[in-house]
Amino acid sequence: MRTAATSSRAKYMQYLKSERSKEKTETKQLKRKALKEEIDFLKQKKMFLQTDMHQTNEKANDLANEAEKSKNMNLFIQSHELRKTISEKEIKINTLDDLINWHRPRIECLIDAGVDLLAFETIPSVKEGEALMRLLKDFPNVKAWLSFSCQSMHQTSHKEDIATSALTCMKMALPGQLIAIGVNCCPPEFAKSLLKDISTISDGFPLIVYPNSGEKWDNREGWSGDKVKTNSSYIESWIQSGAKIIGGCCRTTPNDIFDIHKYFNPEK
Ligand SMILES: [Zn+2]
């Protein structure tokens, strides 16, 4: 009797297992299909933008030629305005699908290797943040933080308003997936203002901050200049501005991190 019960239970468990794996395969197939549709849609959008840009370019050239012949300042200004819209469209073309395709294999590789938290850091533009939030949705069990690199007190490295950029990305994440949002690899003296800007829209959501040492970066020369103040001397102001995770980025040292640790554990 016991053997029969055990065996029918085993059969039932086997049945459940196979149903679950069938379900998993079906979900994977559906996801793949949705992803393919999205990529096709983005490709069409890109083609449309490219045609539109080509036509706008021809119009701008015609206007510039006419302006040259007639010496008409208004025509010259109109052609200049048209060229400006072309460069804006070019930025749009460098779009989500390129960024998503670039980040996807890296994220997949990290998840396969078993990481339990992804750090999307040193993100220079809202567009890249959006691409990452879109990708994160494809991995609903994975958590991440998102951190922008900034070169001024109120803007990302691509000169977009930091609060608007943060809000755009926060709205895109699935509930619970994003554990913090903030800034990194900026001079520490910018961080308080950036955090304050984000906190105006983040409604108490945890903020993260880990600036660099404050030295200057040049693409040809590398790092130069001096640290003015250590990151730990800013901690109080960062906490008051909503920071819940604090650290250091480029050119900060183990000693800098130890100083931050000491701030929270003064007796040790
Ligand atoms: Zn850095």
Automatic annotation (TrEMBL):
Residues 1-264 form the Hcy-binding domain. Pathway: Amino-acid biosynthesis; L-methionine biosynthesis via de novo pathway. This is Homocysteine S-methyltransferase YbgG. Keywords: Coiled coil, Metal-binding, Methyltransferase, Transferase, Zinc. The keyword Metal-binding applies. Pfam families: S-methyl_trans. The keyword Coiled coil applies. Transmembrane segments: none annotated. Residues 25-73 form a coiled coil. GO terms for biological process: methionine biosynthetic process; methylation; S-methylmethionine cycle. InterPro entries: HCY_dom (IPR003726), HCY_dom_sf (IPR036589), Hcy_S-methyltransferase (IPR051486). Its cofactor is Zn(2+). GO terms for molecular function: metal ion binding; S-adenosylmethionine-homocysteine S-methyltransferase activity. Zn(2+) binds at C185, C249, C250.
